[in-house]
Amino acid sequence: MQFLSLHYVKNPYKLTPALICRDYPILVVEDCDEDFETVMEAADLNGIHNKIQRASSGDECLVMLRETINQHSKRPAFVLMDLNMPKSDGRDALKEIQQDAALCGLPLIVFSTSSNPSDLNFCYAHGANAYHVKPVKYLEHLQVLKQIFNYWLTSVAVLPE
Fold first, then answer.
1. Could you tell me which of 144, 64, 69, 65 has the C-alpha nearest to residue 112?
2. Residue 159: CB partners within 8 Å, gap ≥ 6?
3. Is residue 2 classed exposed, middle or buried when 0-12, 13-18 and 19+ CB atoms within 10 A define those classes?
4. What is the structure's pLDDT at 43?
5. Which residues contact 85 (CB under 8 A, 6 or more apart)?
6. What is the C-alpha separation between 116 and 10, in angstroms, rounded?
7. Cα–Cα distance for residue pair 42/48, rounded to 1 Å
8. Contact status, residue 149 vs residue 42, Cβ threshold 8 Å
9. E strands, 15-119, where?
10. How many CA atoms does the CB half-sphere of 114 hold within 13 Å?
11. Given strand 130-133, what is the order of strands in its sheet?
């Protein structure tokens, strides 16, 4: 039996969660083109090199996530989800994801214009890991997105697949 010896060595190549997460895609569930473009700009400003995938509805999100599982592809580092969308919305997707054993461990971040406490309570009760209200002002919207990217890609460890 071999044992692995761990040493603390000064390493000029700091291995951070950002380096670990960069190979994982990010799934953005957003029906509004302008809001999606703001997501892309925030990623660019943060130097995010992850592949960003887009779903425009809750149903499309579920199809994409299930295809990822079926094809044994890398699961998203996190899912950034709007709540209010035509067709199936984020609430429907949250419920489905929570009930699916293969998906229920995904980090789910809700990013919605709704500040309604019932929406907040619903989302946390159905597996959301964070809830952010979309600011109306563009620069504030951009700043919140940059903070979300920074937190979820540099401060949170990715679970093994």
1. 144
2. 105
3. exposed
4. 94
5. 29, 30, 31, 56, 57, 58
6. 48
7. 9
8. yes
9. 26-29, 52-55, 78-81, 108-112
10. 18
11. 52-55, 26-29, 78-81, 108-112, 130-133
In the chain, how many H helices and how many E strands?
6, 5
Token pair of 113 as six digits: 């214009």
Give residue 44's pLDDT.
Answer: 93
Torsion (CA) 53, 59, 63, 64 in degrees, nearest 10:
10
Cα dist from 119 to 62, 104, 111, 131, 133, whole Å: 20, 19, 11, 9, 11
The pLDDT tens digits for 72-86 are 888 899 999 999 988
Contact (Cβ atoms closer than 8 angstroms) between residue 77 and residue 18: no
Task: Name the helix (H) or strand (E) containing 117.
Answer: helix 117-125
Distance between CA 135 and CA 67 in Å, rounded?
A: 32
Amino acid identity at 142:
L
Q: State residue 156's pLDDT score.
A: 72
Q: What is the DSSP letter of 47?
A: T
Residue with the bigger pLDDT between 23 and 76: it is 76
Whether 106 and 79 have beta carbons less than 8 Å apart is answered as yes
